[in-house]
Design brief:
Structural class: alpha/beta
CATH superfamily of the largest domain: SPOUT methyltransferase, trefoil knot domain
Helix content: 40-55%
Number of strands: 7
CATH topology of the largest domain: Alpha/beta knot
Radius of gyration: 25 Å
Number of domains: 2
Length: about 290
């Protein structure tokens, strides 16, 4: 007669081992036992990976997998050429939750509107003057800012052409992976993996060095900075700062200057108050003429 498959025979007694917790019957320490889930890192929740204009859904899946293996979960898709498909989920290899939570937005400005620091991941380029950071140093700065309470974005461009000039203009700095110059064809998923790994290393080091995670005053968001830059342009026009010259060159330099300053919310409010007075005095001066 067949035995009831629900019946089990008692397991043999486990011999004494060097692992004292397991030998004493601690189920959490026994080999193969489920370990308690690690506490989520609040800094990681402030770091987003933004993929702009991705052409192949499989690359989005690869990026999601790269992120999840390194403890990141915030993926944002900007105007992908194709919707997520079977290839995307196959390449995600179980990181389906990262894909399913990823919003699809129309442009980069919308995706980073609430960010305080934005890094554009690019090949070495002279198209636009941005501070260029090595991956390890970039990851340390990203992690440090996220631990201070900032929302941070790492932006990856299209597989063939990368980020365009207008998109790079929205970034505070660039990060360049120093691949073999004779064969620098690094695909999107691999690039996301490299930087996700560096972020993981930076996070582990920072958490060990400063478990309390001290916070600074909130840095200015991308939207707050863009509002300031808009008002700055209007104030410069009001005082005829450019004197007939095209304003674009001066504004690019001023943007870089203020982005390097890493302004916080209070500093932006102060500067906008100064600009408001500049515009008011310019208007009064115009009325006296």
């Amino acid at each position: 007669m067949n035995s009831d498959p629900r019946e089990t025979t008692p397991p043999p007694e486990r011999p004494e081992s060097a692992n004292s917790a397991a030998a004493q019957g601690d189920p959490a320490a026994a080999p193969g036992a489920a370990q308690p889930a690690a506490e989520p890192d609040p800094a990681a929740a402030r770091i987003r990976i933004v993929l702009v204009g991705t052409q192949h859904p499989g690359n989005i899946g690869s990026a999601a997998r790269a992120m999840k293996t390194m403890g990141l979960s915030r993926l944002i898709l900007v105007a992908p050429e194709k919707p997520l498909d079977r290839d995307a989920y196959a390449m995600a290899a179980g990181a389906d939750d990262v894909l399913e939570a990823a919003p699809i937005l129309p442009d980069l400005a919308t995706a980073i509107a609430d960010c305080h620091w934005v890094l554009g991941c690019t090949a070495r380029s002279r198209r636009i003057a941005l501070e260029e950071l090595a991956p390890r140093f970039a990851a340390e700065r990203v992690d440090a800012r996220a631990r201070e309470g900032a929302q941070v974005a790492l932006v990856f461009g299209r597989e063939r052409t990368g980020l365009n000039n207008d998109e790079l203009q929205l970034c505070h700095a660039a990060v360049h992976i120093p691949a073999n110059p004779d064969y620098s064809s690094l695909n999107l998923g691999a690039a996301v993996q490299v930087l996700s790994y560096e972020l993981r290393i930076a996070a582990l080091a920072a958490a060990a060095a400063d478990p309390a995670g001290d916070h600074r005053d909130p840095p200015a968001s991308h939207a707050q900075l863009e509002g300031f830059f808009g008002q700055l342009g209007e104030a410069l026009d009001a005082i005829d700062f450019h004197k007939g010259r095209a304003p674009e060159s001066a504004m690019r330099k001023l943007r870089r200057l203020f982005l390097r300053a890493d302004l916080d919310e209070r500093e932006v409010r102060l500067l906008r108050g100064v600009l408001a007075d500049v515009e008011r005095m310019a208007m009064l001066a115009g009325q006296r003429r």
